[in-house]
Amino acid sequence: MPVVDSQTVVGPPVNPFLDPKDDLYNPLRYIASNTLTAIAFALVMLIALIQTFYTFRHGAKWMLVMVIGGYTYAVGFGCRFGLHYHPDSEGTYIAEYMFIVLSPCAFIAANYVLLGRLARHISCPTHVLLPIQKLTLVFVSSDVTTFLIQATGGGMSVSRTQTQQQTGSHIFLAGLVLQLVSFTLFSGIYIRFLYRVYTLEHDVWERDKAKPWYRDWRTLATALAISCIGILVRSGYRVAELSQGFQGYLATTEAFFYALDTLPLVVAISVYVLFWPGWFIKDGTKVVHDDPKRSDLESL
């Protein structure tokens, strides 16, 4: 129950639609647009359905984490329909916020796995800064860790006590910052990988030049780069948003939510609708190990 000061307790407004900006019971401080929600929900659900079809038709089952994340992300938008009609519903807001903010962890994890698959596909794992298995383990572990930190902070931030709300907000922000730092490091490693292949492995860089675009590994590499940019934009926005607090200008302006959170993430996942990894990397493709000795032993 919102508290104005240490003595005064304010009840919910009779009509929450009259003045949502000053409604202490409305966590968004605005009435969610059903039109924008419907567009976002339809796009995300369509992407998830197409990727589900691709997964079982064209392979790359290791991208299922992104597919599942797409469905949970759509659930978050579905909750916004409820917030439109019941803007003061605390339970609906908690569900919406958790699904919207935490689902992208799945998109990030998919990109972590994809880099390793791509490096092995073109037989260039040595150009990745870390051994592929360690790279995937380190970054996926960091993704899980930041997910848990954000989930913990999110749970505390909806407490009815101001102290726990502030603590939860700080924990949530820490999780978002760590996620941004982790993904920025990953993006740097990916840029370095592409640069080294381009400068040191010219034959590999040009090897698919004569093939159709959906067989050229550089097309998939470009798709991964686009996805990384979208996630970085969204992560930067979330850090800036929570730095202002849950009632800051960014958090209480719906246009920013769609322009700097939803749109970048839709781009980050929809790019794989056009360039599905299974078209380039078949599930049965021979794995090239980082350690040549290990590869030789396993081939015996």
Fold and architecture overview:
- The protein is an all-alpha fold and 300 residues long.
- It is built from 11 helices and no strands.
- It has helices at 34-58, 64-85, 90-102, 104-121, 132-157, 162-200, 202-206, 217-243, 254-274, 277-280, 292-299.
- Helix 1 (34-58) packs antiparallel against helix 2 and helix 8 packs antiparallel against helix 9.
- The protein is elongated and about 70 Å long.
- The relative contact order is 0.12.
- Mean pLDDT is 87; it is low at 3-9 and 285-300.
Shape: elongated
The main sheet comes to: none
Helix fraction, binned, reads 55-70%
Radius of gyration: 22 Å
Uncertain ranges: 3-9, 285-300
The tally of helices reads: 11
Structural class comes to mainly alpha
The H-and-E topology, N to C, reads as HHHHHHHHHHH
Proportion of beta-strand residues: under 5%
Number-wise, the strands total 0
* Average pLDDT: 87
Distance between the first and last residues' Cα: 67 Å
